[in-house]
ABC transporter domain-containing protein (Kutzneria albida DSM 43870), 332 residues
Amino acid sequence: MHDGSGRIVVQGLTKQFGPVTAVNNLSFTVEPGSVTGFLGPNGAGKTTTLRMLLGLVTPTAGGSTICGLPFAQLGNPGRVVGAVLEAQGFHPGRSARNHLRVYAAAMGVPDQRADEVLHLVGLGQAANRSAGAFSLGMKQRLALATALLGDPQVLVLDEPANGLDPEGIVWLRAFLQSFARSGRTVLISSHLLGEVEQMVDQVVIISRGQTAYYGPLETLRASQQSRVLVQPADPQALVAKLQESGIGSIEWTQDGRLAISGVDRKEVADLAMSSGIALYDIQQEVIDLEQLFFRLTSGQYSGAPVPSPTGYPPQPPGPSPWQPGNGWGGQG
Ligand SMILES: Nc1ncnc2c1ncn2[C@@H]1O[C@H](COP(=O)(O)OP(=O)(O)O)[C@@H](O)[C@H]1O
Ligand SMILES: [Mg+2]
C-alpha cells in the first residue's frame, strides 16, 4: 500500500537516449499542500522526467516514488495520481461526457463523476459537445478533468498552460492553488516562468537535464544581488578608480554599460564625481524573474560569447553568480 502522503520523491533520476542525456542525476521532493513549478527551456528534460515519474519511460538510473511507491506499484494509479501529459488526443466524435465515462469505467469510478469533473473545470455547459472540436484551451480543461476523475491526491501536469488564454491561466492558477490548499500535491511544468510564477510556491528549475535551482521563488528573488548600472563618459577610468578603491565586482552588460555589484548608487556616483568622470546614466538594476530564469538556464544554448562593445576592453568572463552551489541555489 502507498503511504497516502501525497509526496513525490525524485532521486538521482537519469535518462540517456543514445548519445543524448535527457535527464542527468535529478533529485527533488514535492511536498503535499503546495504547487511546485517544474521549469526549464524546451528540451531541458521536463517531459522525460514526468514520463519516468509516471512509469511511461524506464530510467537509465535512479528512481522516483509517489506516496512512497514507484508508479508501477500504485495498484489503481488513477486514484492516487492524475496526470496531464503533452498532446493528449481525444476520440474526435465522442462527447466530452462520454470521453470521461470511458476513463471512469476503466478506473472503476461511477459515471456521475464525469459530470462532476466537467463542472470542476468549467466545462459543464460543453458536456455534450464533441471533444474533437474543442479549442486548445478547452482540450486542456478536458485533459485536466480526465486527470481529476479518480479524485487523486497528486496532480502532475505537463505544460498545462499551453494554449490557455489569459482568462484560462487565471482560472488554472485559482484551481491549482485551491487543490493544493486542500492538502494535495501539484507538480506543474512550464518552459515559461512568467506563465506559472503566480501559481507556484516553489520551483525546480532544470537546464540540460540538471538542477539549476531548487527552492522557493521568494528565496531566488531575495538572493538577487542587485547591481548598479552606469554609463560613464570614460568607462576605463571608472573601472580603474573602482578597482583602486576595492569596490564591488565589475561586469559589462550586453548593452555596454558597467554593472557593479556590492555597492549602492551613491558610492559609485561620489567616486565618479571625485574622479572627475561624467556619468550619463546611473541606476539600480531591477531584476525580473524572467531574466533570472533565462540566466539560470541559458547555458543550455550558450554559443559564442557576447562580443564586448567597440572601444571597450575585452573582459575575461568572471565567475557567474548564477551557478548552483555557491551558497544560494543548487540542490537542497
Ligand atoms: N524518445 C526520445 N528519443 C530520443 N531523444 C529524446 C526522446 N525524448 C526526448 N528526447 C530528447 O531528450 C531531451 C529532453 O526532451 P524533453 O524531456 O522532451 O524536454 P522538455 O519537455 O523539457 O522540452 C531533448 O534533447 C529531446 O530531444
Ligand atoms: Mg516537454
Remarks:
- Residues 129 and 251 are 58 Å apart (CA to CA).
- The longest strand covers residues 20-30.
- Residues 46-47, 86, 158-159 surround magnesium ion (ligand 2) (CB under 6 Å).
- The chain has two domains: 8-218, 225-286.
